[in-house]
TrEMBL record:
SUPFAM superfamilies: CoA-transferase family III (CaiB/BaiF). InterPro entries: CoA-transferase_III_domain, CoA-Trfase_fam_III, CoA-Trfase_III_dom3_sf, CoA-Trfase_III_dom_1_sf. Keywords: Transferase. It comes from Rhodovulum visakhapatnamense. This is CoA transferase. One of its GO terms (molecular function) is transferase activity.
């Protein structure tokens, strides 16, 4: 049982942000039907690091669980009519095409509401439905550059740095899922069916809310990035990453004087909390010197004894053995259709202490085409005709 049991969602999504949003909702119990092209959605045919396990894309592992797959050709009139009949049974239609694509397919908002006035229509775009950038490609690293995220990442002494993952896609997914849940709640209270719109540009800005607000309101700064290894431009020293002889340690918020004894740097005792802002570079340079003299095994207990917030900087390889990650059950293990092990991240929210289960592993292309169309009211002969004409596909393949 899930919070969204009984809610049917049609997901016309591709790549990452849209499919990830749909998976959040599927994890919560919604019946999410992924409507894919005959050749399969992008995320099942392309993979980050070009990694496939038993022909299953790691991107499909990331965003495909707990969904059913319907594969059809939306340019085929009979297939499009079948989709219209399915829309009549749905609560939500969600898509992350470029603006205007759904209208070209004959499935714009007006048509959706003609078919089903209670439908909630959710669109995730790169830059919004209109405006001078509406038709530009909305890809995570481009939005990192445009939004200031890259310019504010890295060191002041170096250049801008792209984040080593795709945070904007994932944040846009969470915003989309939250917006849909809010719209469903409003519809149940008032009967009003909303259009939910999320764009990646504002998602990127929202990720940086604290620092952008400080910057726009005149906060003092030397530049957009932290100097001397500090983590950012706005936090007081020694907030940042410091090298020890055999690794790196992140030091969080503390007073400079807190590090005087553990790092054997008595000169740090003279720096005030205000100096943490005004003399950031001097303090960070001293801390660099003190940390460089230590090994990881020496530094961690010294910082712990001094009450300094800190943690080693670790790679993904350390995550499965992290005691808290293990306690939370943050990883889920399953098998591909070929029987090989695959690892997925668990749903990140608990409900009464329980994490929603993986009810279905990422499906094959069009695995559920026949059953979904039957639920939309199509007869066996109609479905057979669609399959025979190539307007619908049902396969056991993981990619097209």
């Amino acid at each position: 049982m899930g919070a969204l049991d009984g809610i049917r969602i049609l997901s016309f999504n591709h790549f990452l942000s849209g499919p990830a949003a749909a998976q959040h909702l599927a994890d919560m119990g919604a019946d999410v039907i992924a409507i894919e092209p005959i050749g399969g959605a992008f995320q099942r045919n392309w993979a980050v690091a070009n990694r496939f396990v038993d022909d299953t894309s790691v991107n499909h592992m990331t965003t495909g669980r707990n969904k059913r797959s319907l594969a059809l050709d939306l340019k085929a009139p009979a297939a499009l009519e079948a989709v219209r009949r399915l829309i009549a049974t749905a609560d939500v239609v969600m898509e992350n095409f470029r603006p205007g694509t759904m209208e070209k397919l004959g499935l714009g908002e007006a048509e959706l509401r003609r078919i089903n006035p209670r439908i909630i229509y959710a669109a995730t775009t790169g830059y919004g439905a209109d405006g001078p950038y509406a038709k530009l490609p909305g890809q995570d690293v481009l939005l990192q550059a445009m939004s200031g995220l890259a310019a504010h990442t890295g060191s002041l002494e170096g250049g801008p740095v792209a984040i080593g993952t795709v945070p904007i896609d994932h944040h846009a997914a969470a915003l989309t899922a939250g917006g849909i849940v809010a719209a469903l709640f409003e519809r149940e209270r008032t009967g009003t069916a909303r259009k939910v719109e999320v764009n990646m540009l504002q998602a990127a800005l929202d990720l940086q809310g604290e620092s952008i607000t400080a910057w726009m309101n005149g906060a003092n700064r030397k530049g957009p990035r932290g100097e001397a290894g500090l983590a950012n431009w706005f936090s007081p020293a020694p907030y940042g990453i410091y090298a020890v002889s055999d690794g790196h340690v992140m030091i969080s918020m503390c007073k400079p004087a807190d590090l005087a004894e553990p790092l054997n740097l008595p000169e740090l005792a003279a720096f005030t909390e205000e100096d943490g802002f005004s003399r950031r570079g001097e303090i960070a340079t001293l801390v660099q010197r003190g940390m460089a003299r230590l090994t990881m095994a020496e530094a961690l207990p010294l910082l712990e004894a001094a009450g300094v917030w800190h943690t080693p900087v670790e790679d993904y390889d350390a995550l499965p053995q992290n005691p808290q990650v293990k306690h939370l059950g943050a990883f889920v293990e399953a098998e591909t259709r070929g029987g090989s092990p695959m690892v997925m991240l668990a749903h990140p929210v608990r409900y009464d202490g329980e994490t929603p289960p993986v009810r279905m592993t990422p499906p094959a292309l069009g695995e559920h085409s026949r059953e979904v169309l039957a639920e939309a009211g199509l007869g066996a002969d109609e479905i057979d005709a669609l399959l025979a004409a190539g307007a619908v596909a049902q396969t056991d393949r993981m990619r097209g």
